[in-house]
Amino acid sequence: MRARWLWVFLLLLALLAALVSVAEGAPPAQAGTPPAVTDDQVNAVAKGLYCPVCENTPLDVCPTLACIQWRATIREKLAAGWTTQQINDYFVAQYGERVLARPSGRGLNVLVWVIPPLVILAGVALLWRFLLPMVRKPAPAAAPLPAAAARDASADEYAQRLEAELRKRI
Amino acid sequence: MATSSTDTTPDADAVPAPRRKFRWGQILVLAALLALLGLVAFQMSRIGPLAAGQVGAGEAAPEFTLQTFDGPAVTLADLRGQVVVVNFWASWCKPCEEEAAALQSTSQKYADQGVVFLGVAYVDTEPESRAFLDRFAITYPNGPDLRTDISHRYRVRGVPETFVVDQTGTVRKLFVGPTNGDALSAAIDQLLTE
Questions:
Q1: What is the value of pTM for the model shown?
Q2: Closest-CA residue of chain B to A73
Q3: Are residues B123 and A66, on separate chains, in Cβ contact within 8 Å?
């Protein structure tokens, strides 16, 4: 019985030691210090933005100084507790809608979302209208060739004689 | 070899080809397509690749209002009668650093002659813009190109670019790339003496 209590005591001691070591390894939390923002968090937001200077290069992988500054701004805003939407809105207010990787559905931008489905529908309609009848239409029966008709065995005198000669010899 | 009359006379019994029906659907689709193309062309001509080159000498300077970093907004239309130098720059732009000191000294040189310098920070972040202005001790009004609206109007292709606007609001000189004090002074002097 005594040995059992000893094991429980040792187990609790080990747990306590583990907790202390974890607490010592963790950075000290200070009141008022903004939470650390990781690169992954910054890049998750940056992926949805494009710098107008570096066309066709997403902000999260763009190496230019302008884009580095933009990512620093994102980090700053995330540390201040801004949401992705708030950050996107800020960049749109500063640099215009063209910074967004996914354009909003406002104004002429709505065309970006409307035209592709319309084009696809039109393509399907065209296929339905022109291609399907071609597939369904049966192929016209082959007309007998005039030359072949002339060589019809029953009407060919030489063929009849040949057949008769062959029958005699078999 | 004469052909018989029956060969050349149209067949009286031939069935005339059916007249194509008036199809409203086709007309509507075509009209919608044309409207769409017109809309896209309009948008592209305004800000897109169809927009004709840069705003050059002899063209009316596009109007704008610049919200400065430190204070009031400046509207180009309010500066009629004065020579205005509009400089597009960015803190991340190395050539902009080359011309910054020359722009500041030239602005000081003409300050008492009514020449107005305006700096437009293109695709820049405010802390870096302010640091750039502090670094080169620039004192003339500067502000961000919000929503890149001003650079669109001037069809700016890159930075730095500098537009010299005369007293009537016409662009008289365009510097693409870094300018220098002498070239800028020569352009301003010409307008002041006219």
A1: 0.67
A2: B125
A3: yes
The CATH label, of 2.60.120.200, 3.40.190.10, 1.10.8.640, 3.40.50.1950, for the domain at A39-100 is 1.10.8.640
Identify the pLDDT of residue A141.
61
B40 touches chain A (CB under 8 A): yes
In chain A, where are the structural domains located?
39-100, 104-131
Verify whether the Cβ–Cβ distance A94 to B149 is below 8 Å: no
Asked whether the predicted pLDDT for residue B146 surpasses 90, the reply is: yes
pLDDT digits (tens, 9 = 90+) for A134-164: 877 766 665 655 555 555 656 688 888 888 8
Q: Crossing angle for the helix pair B24-47 and A110-126, nearest 10 degrees?
A: 140
Q: Name every residue whose Cβ is closer than 8 Å to that of residue A109 and which is 6 or more positions away in sequence.
A: A97, A103
Please tell me the distance from the alpha carbon of residue B44 to that of residue B50, in angstroms, as a whole number.
5
- Compute the nearest-CA separation of A58 from chain B (Å): 15
Cα-Cα-Cα-Cα dihedral of B61, B88, B166, B150, to 10°? 20
Cβ-count burial of B70 within 10 angstroms (0-12 exposed, 13-18 middle, 19+ buried)? Answer: exposed
* pLDDT tens column, A33-76: 556 899 999 999 999 999 988 888 999 999 999 999 999 999 99
Can you give the C-alpha Rg of chain B in angstroms? Answer: 29
Per residue in B113-124, pLDDT (tens digit) is: 999 999 999 999
This model of the complex carries an ipTM of 0.72
| DSSP code for B113 | G
Which candidate from A70, A93, A96 shows the least CB-CB separation from B125? A70
Rounded Cα distance, A146 and A159, in Å: 18
